[in-house]
C-alpha cells in the first residue's frame, strides 16, 4: 500500500476525539465555531464540495465534512495557540487532491475554465448578455436572471479536482477523517515541523 504524508492544523480539542474514538472527523458545528458569521457561506460551498468529492473517494456515513490538508511541510499552517498540527501518513486511496487556486473560483462563485480558449469563449458569452462582470451570477445583481450561466458556473466547479500543474503551494488534499494509526506526530505551538520526519 502506498502512503502519502499530509499536514493539517486542527483545534487542540481534536486530540480528545482522537484518543476517545480513534479518529477525528470534521463537523458542521466545528465550521460554525471556526468561521462564525461567514459560516453559512462556507457551509454552502463545503456541501457542494462534499457531493463532488464523494464521487471520487467514498465518504463514510459518519463523516459530515472533509478535513483540509497541506501536501508540503514548507506550505502547511504552523501550530498556534489552541491549534495543533498533525503530521499524517495516509494510504493514498484515502486522499483526494484538488487545486486550491480553483477552489478560490468556487468561493467567489466564478466559472472555472477548461483552458484559455474556454475562458475567452465564456467571457464572450457573458459579454453578449450585456453583463459587465463575472462576479454576480449566483448571488448579486444578476442572481436568477441567467439560469443557464449559473448552471454552467456550478457545473465547472468539478474542475477543482483537475490539477493542471503539480505545485505544492497550489495543490491541496482532503481526507474524510484522521485515523489514529495515520498520526505520525502531533505538533504543539513552538514545535518546528522541520524537526520531524
What's a quick, concise take on this entry?
The protein has one domain. Helices cover about 30% and strands about 20% of the residues.
Helices, strands, pairings?
Blueprint: E1 3-11, H1 14-21, E2 23-24, H2 28-35, H3 39-54, E3 67-70, E4 83-91, E5 96-99, H4 100-107, H5 116-128, H6 147-156, E6 171-175, E7 178-179, E8 183-187
Antiparallel strand pairs: 1-4, 2-7, 3-6, 4-8, 5-6
Which descriptors would you attach to this protein?
single chain, 197 residues, alpha+beta, 3-stranded antiparallel β-sheet, 6 helices, 20% strand, elongated
Number of helices in the DSSP assignment: 6
Please report the distance between the alpha carbons of the first and last residues.
19 Å
Largest sheet: 3 strands, antiparallel
Bin the strand percentage. 15-25%
For the CA atoms, what is the radius of gyration? 19 Å
Give the H and E element order.
EHEHHEEEHHHEEE
* Number of structural domains: 1
Structural class: alpha+beta
Q: Percent range for helical residues? A: 25-40%
Query: How many strands in all?
Result: 8
Report strand order across the widest sheet. Answer: 1-4-8
Poorly predicted ranges: none
- Mean pLDDT equals 92
Please tell me what the overall shape is: elongated
Account of the protein in words:
- The protein has 197 residues and is α+β, with helices and mostly antiparallel strands.
- The protein has one domain (3-189).
- Helices cover 32% and strands 20% of the residues.
- The chain is built from 6 helices and 8 strands.
- It has helices at residues 14-21, 28-35, 39-54, 100-107, 116-128, 147-156; strands at residues 3-11, 23-24, 67-70, 83-91, 96-99, 171-175, 178-179, 183-187.
- The chain has a 3-stranded antiparallel beta sheet with strand order 1-4-8, with no helix packed on it.
- α2 (28-35) packs antiparallel against α3.
- The longest helix is centred in the first third of the chain and has 16 residues, at 39-54.
- The chain is elongated, with a radius of gyration of 19 Å.
- The model has no long low-confidence stretch (mean pLDDT 92).
Amino acid at each position: 500500500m502506498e502512503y502519502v504524508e499530509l499536514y493539517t492544523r486542527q483545534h487542540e480539542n481534536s486530540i480528545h476525539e482522537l484518543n476517545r474514538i480513534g479518529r477525528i472527523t470534521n463537523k458542521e458545528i466545528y465550521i460554525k465555531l471556526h468561521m462564525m458569521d461567514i459560516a453559512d457561506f462556507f457551509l454552502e460551498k463545503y456541501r457542494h464540495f462534499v457531493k463532488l468529492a464523494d464521487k471520487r473517494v467514498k465518504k463514510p456515513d459518519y463523516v459530515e465534512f472533509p478535513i483540509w490538508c497541506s501536501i508540503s511541510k514548507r506550505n502547511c499552517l504552523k501550530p498556534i495557540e489552541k491549534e495543533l498540527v498533525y503530521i499524517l501518513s495516509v494510504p493514498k486511496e484515502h486522499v483526494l487532491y484538488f487545486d486550491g487556486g480553483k477552489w478560490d473560483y468556487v468561493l467567489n462563485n466564478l466559472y472555472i475554465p477548461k483552458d484559455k480558449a474556454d475562458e475567452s469563449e465564456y467571457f464572450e458569452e457573458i459579454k453578449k448578455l450585456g453583463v459587465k462582470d463575472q462576479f454576480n451570477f449566483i448571488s448579486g445583481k444578476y442572481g436568477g436572471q441567467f439560469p443557464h450561466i449559473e448552471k454552467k458556473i456550478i457545473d465547472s466547479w468539478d474542475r477543482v479536482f483537475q490539477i493542471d500543474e503539480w505545485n505544492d503551494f497550489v495543490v491541496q488534499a482532503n481526507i474524510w477523517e484522521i485515523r489514529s494509526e495515520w498520526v505520525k506526530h502531533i505538533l504543539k505551538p513552538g514545535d518546528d515541523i522541520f524537526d520531524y520526519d
